[in-house]
Every structure is written in C-alpha cells, then in structure tokens.
C-alpha cells in the first residue's frame, strides 16, 4: 500500500482509543479501516499516567496498521472541547510601499503576528480560523494570495489549550512511536460528518455521550456557539451497575451492552438473566427493566445537568434538534429518552461506511474528513502553529529539510473556510460565545479542492 497518501485520525478517549485510517488520493477520501482499543491511564478525559496511555495508543496504532496493511508514522489527533478556549486575534504586516503580489510567506507572516498577539500565559495555540483578510485596510477577501497589496491584515480566532495538557498528549504520542501532524478540535471534526449543511446553518446540538464525560456542543451558522461538559459518562453507568448488582466492572459492562435500555419503559419485567454476584455461590436473577432503571437514573442526572446550560442559552429551540454520538448512543432508546427529556427532535449519528457503523468512531472519522476538506489557508495556519510540522501525508519524518516537500499544495484557490465562534471555558465547564462574524458564502467552488489534487501534484 502507498502510505504517503494516508490520513490517520486518532481519538484518545477515557475508556477507548479510536483510530481511523483513510486514503486521500485521486479517488477521493476512502476509509481503509478502523480500530477501537481499551485505554489505560486516563480519567475523565485527562491523562493521569503517560506510560499507560502511550502503551494503549501504541497497541491501537499497531492493530490499525495490521488491519489496513499499512505503516503509520503520523496521525492527526482530536482535542476534547473541555480543553479549549478561543481568543480573537488580529495581525498586520507591510508587503511593499509600491505594492506587490501577496505570497504564501506573506500570509504565514500575518497569521503568525495574529497568533502571537493572542498568546496567553500557560496556553498554547492549537488552531487558527481566519475570518477575513484586508488588503490595504480596505479590500475584504477570503484568500489574498497573488493579489497586489501594500499591507495585509488578518482577523480571526485562535483556539488554545493548556500547554501542560498539550505537552502530555505529545509525550504520549512520542512514547508510542508516532508523530502528531496537528490537533483538530473534536467538535469541528464531528460536525463535519454528523451535521449536514442545513443543520450547521440553522442550528443543532451535538451530544457526545463518551466513556469518561458527556459533551453538548451547539452549532449554528457554521460556528460553535456554546458547549458544556459534564464529567460523567458511560464508565459511570457501568460503575453504577457494578455497585448495585454487586458484580465486576467487566460483567457490568457486558450486562449494559447486552440487556440494557436507556428508557426503562422499553425493557421487559419478565425477561430476566443471571448475574454473577461477588461473594455469592449462586447467581442473582435480574430483569431487563431493573437493569434499565439503574442505567436511566444516571442518564437522567447527566441530561439534567447538561440540559440546564442548553436551556439557558436557548439551544433547545434550534430546528435541527439533538444529534447523538459516542459509545452510549448504542443504548437502545437513548434517542427517545433525549427527545422526551428535552422536548426536541433527536437522532443517533454513526458513520455510514462499512466497518465504521458505530457512533464511537464519529470523532476519528470526522478528523480524516475534516483534514481532507481543509483549505490551503487552513494548512498555512497549521504550518505557523506547528512550525512547518503540519504534514499532509503519512510519509516517515525525515527532518525539517523535507517539510515543504510534503506540505499541502500551495496553489491559489477560492475556497472559503467555515468560521468558528467560541467563548472562553467557564469554571463550571461551560463554554459560550457572543462573538459574531459575517457568514461566508462559496461563490467559486474550486475544482481542485481537497488533498487529492495535492497528492496528484507531488506523488504522481
């Protein structure tokens, strides 16, 4: 297999690691395979043991390599919404007193100035989203390259994460023997695949029911408007089952998966199964309904806490309702429970590709799709943030001298980037926004959009 055109999405979750391997060659994005593997060393979305997490990542990457018959050197990694803050940023550079064509170097210079101006203590830039470029302080453009300018200004938003947390993730990947191309905010990855254009425009709630936490993110006008995090998730449901039924965590997980319902009314009182209780010689008989009542109690608690923030921000009136992802989306009746509790439309998202038809792959699959659709300007922004390390391929790292050879194509295009609006993380885990930006429209669809043109250019 030609490894140079591979895109590998990595989602390091509290209870499991997901890896999606795709090809971004001339045929468009094609998924080759996906793997989910248990995580050790994580607690509520945070790394508590670097060596254990590194071993978990290494195992998942090895499984993905074997499954897809490929060698994986580089990945693109998701960052959870709980880490993220957003800062407004502006940068200005002089091009020439007489005026000359704007180059890639000029664009990177002005974005570097903006990112540097927004830098805050103990936080690290992980993404930059330009909202507009101004030529000579007057002409508003999406892509200034090849245009004549005396000065160039950029306005946008810088996504930041705690420097210590970013360091820990990078250390994990280094110990696992792989290199990170760059980070992608998890909500941006999921929204690129779980929401259609109408849902992203008119408004939807992404409800990610993860293993260690639950996240609700509001998307409207192609922007993140609000997000809230509850530090309870699927692992807590399993723990409740284990405690109430006096059984092991592994048995509790199997019971939840095989017999559990999110909505007890869907379960049967007469359908019973044997549960091996710790310290007892005989198994206990438990009904589906009783098990589902245990599950429902924790789900109701999580949904109430998350729902308060959604209600306060008038998100529950959005026309597209709630789109559910994450491992607990597999619980039978979860969509009905969410719809009833929030009085909204609710549906479950899972990738449609063979081998990915499971909500747990939403983030990892979203990463490869997001990267495949990333514009040239987006890649230039990443090269600024990651010191030219934002590679667009899976080639084996060969030193800085080869960085430009395998960076994304730099020919001018007319693509418009989706804007992001995102407020600072509050102490209670909620994130809100009041920043508004003009909505962009795609008037010129570039026929060479995506990585396919890049790979044809450099690898054919």
Automatic annotation (TrEMBL):
Pfam families per record: FtsA, SHS2_FTSA
> Where would I find the SHS2 domain in this sequence?
7-194
What's its membrane topology?
A: Peripheral membrane protein
| Annotated spans, Disordered | 426-446
SMART domains referenced in this protein's UniProt entry, alphabetically = FtsA (SM00842)
The answer to whether UniProt assigns keyword Electron transport to this entry is no
Chief site of localization: membrane
Query: What biological-process terms (Gene Ontology) are attached?
Result: cell division
The function of this protein is: Cell division protein that is involved in the assembly of the Z ring. May serve as a membrane anchor for the Z ring.
Q: Which family does it belong to?
A: Belongs to the FtsA/MreB family. Belongs to the heat shock protein 70 family.
Name of the featured protein: Cell division protein FtsA
Native organism = Lactobacillus nasalidis
Gene for this protein?
Answer: ftsA
């Amino acid at each position: 297999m030609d490894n140079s055109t591979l895109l590998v999405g990595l989602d390091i979750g509290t209870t499991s690691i997901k890896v999606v391997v795709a090809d971004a060659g001339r045929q468009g994005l094609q998924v080759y395979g996906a793997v989910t593997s248990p995580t050790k060393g994580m607690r509520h979305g945070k790394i508590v043991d670097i060596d254990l997490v590194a071993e978990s990542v290494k195992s998942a990457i090895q499984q993905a390599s074997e499954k897809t018959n490929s060698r994986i050197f580089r990945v693109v990694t998701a960052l959870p919404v709980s880490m993220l803050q957003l800062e407004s940023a502006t940068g200005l550079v002089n091009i020439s007193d007489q005026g000359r064509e704007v180059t890639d170097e000029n664009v990177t210079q002005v974005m570097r100035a903006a990112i540097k101006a927004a830098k805050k203590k103990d936080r690290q830039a992980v993404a930059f989203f330009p909202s507009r470029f101004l030529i000579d302080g007057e002409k508003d453009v999406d892509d200034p390259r090849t245009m004549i300018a005396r000065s160039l200004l950029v306005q946008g938003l810088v996504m930041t994460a705690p420097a210590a947390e970013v360091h820990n993730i990078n250390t994990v990947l280094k110990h696992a023997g792989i290199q990170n191309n760059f980070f992608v905010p998890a909500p941006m990855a999921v929204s690129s695949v779980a929401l259609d254009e109408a849902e992203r425009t008119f408004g939807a709630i992404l409800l990610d029911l993860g293993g260690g936490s639950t996240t609700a993110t509001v998307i409207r006008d192609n922007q993140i408007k609000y997000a809230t995090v509850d530090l309870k998730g699927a692992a807590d449901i399993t723990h409740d089952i284990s405690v109430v039924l006096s059984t092991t965590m592994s048995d509790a997980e199997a019971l939840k998966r095989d017999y559990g319902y999110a909505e007890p009314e869907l379960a049967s009182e007469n359908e019973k199964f044997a549960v091996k209780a710790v310290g007892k010689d005989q198994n206990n008989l438990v009904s589906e309904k009783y098990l589902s009542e245990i599950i429902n109690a924790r789900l109701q608690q999580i949904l109430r806490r998350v729902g308060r923030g959604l209600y306060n921000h008038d998100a529950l009136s959005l026309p597209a309702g709630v789109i559910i992802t994450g491992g607990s989306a597999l619980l039978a009746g979860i969509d009905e429970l969410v719809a009833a509790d929030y009085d909204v439309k609710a549906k479950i998202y899972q990738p449609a590709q063979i081998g990915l038809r499971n909500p747990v792959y939403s983030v990892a699959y979203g990463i490869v799709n997001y990267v495949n659709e990333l514009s040239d300007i987006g890649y230039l922004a990443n090269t600024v943030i990651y010191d030219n390390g934002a590679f667009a391929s899976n080639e084996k790292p060969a030193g800085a001298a080869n960085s430009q050879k395998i960076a994304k194509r730099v020919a001018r295009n007319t693509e418009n980037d989706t804007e992001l609006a995102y407020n600072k993380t509050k102490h209670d885990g909620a994130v809100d926004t009041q920043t508004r930006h003009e909505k962009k429209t795609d008037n010129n669809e570039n026929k060479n959009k995506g990585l396919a043109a890049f790979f044809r250019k450099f690898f054919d």
